[in-house]
Design goal:
The protein has 144 residues and is an alpha+beta fold. It folds into 2 domains: 107 residues, Nucleic acid-binding proteins (OB fold (Dihydrolipoamide Acetyltransferase, E2P), Beta Barrel); 31 residues. The protein is built from 2 helices and 7 strands. Strands 1-3-4-6-5 form a 5-stranded mixed β-barrel. The longest helix is centred in the C-terminal third of the chain and has 26 residues. The termini are far apart. The mean pLDDT is 88.
């Protein structure tokens, strides 16, 4: 029987992505993403729980996406696999960390916030639609 190791989250970045150069010459990005769930308890009081997820990106193209479009507070979609790795800290204590790894295959990273360019294009389109409505109204008031 096959197994599946797939993690999908949509959330907000807790800080700007950290970019690092690897010995291989490639680059990587790492950042944390917060996901929240909200509910009402038995008394009707609103509750919220936030979970933090560590993300590392090794896909060359997606590292560029992270560097160019993601920043603290950005909404993003992350799809990758869960991996736990062990390391020794500066205090010589062995630790482990679980991360969502966005690798070169079967992974996705999407910036869900609109860019300034997209905002500008949307504003121009809205102005154009407003001018068309004003022309239509003017044409409706002219009797010939």
């Amino acid at each position: 029987m096959s197994t599946v190791n797939r993690a999908i989250i949509v959330g907000r970045l807790g800080g700007d992505p950290k970019m690092r150069d690897l010995q291989s010459g490639d680059r990587m990005a790492s950042f944390s993403v917060a996901t929240s769930e909200r509910w009402r308890d038995a008394t009707g009081e609103r509750k919220e729980k936030t979970s933090w997820h560590n993300v590392v990106v090794f896909n060359r193209t997606l590292v560029e996406v992270a560097e160019k479009y993601l920043h603290k507070g950005s909404r993003c979609y992350v799809e990758g696999k869960m991996e736990t790795r062990r390391y020794t800290g500066n205090d010589n204590v062995e630790r482990s960390i679980t991360e969502i790894v966005v690798g070169p295959f079967n992974s996705k990273l999407l910036a869900l916030d609109r860019t300034e360019e997209e905002d500008h294009e949307a504003a121009l389109a809205q102005q154009s639609r407003q001018r068309e409505r004003e022309r239509d109204e003017l044409n409706d008031t002219i009797p010939f």
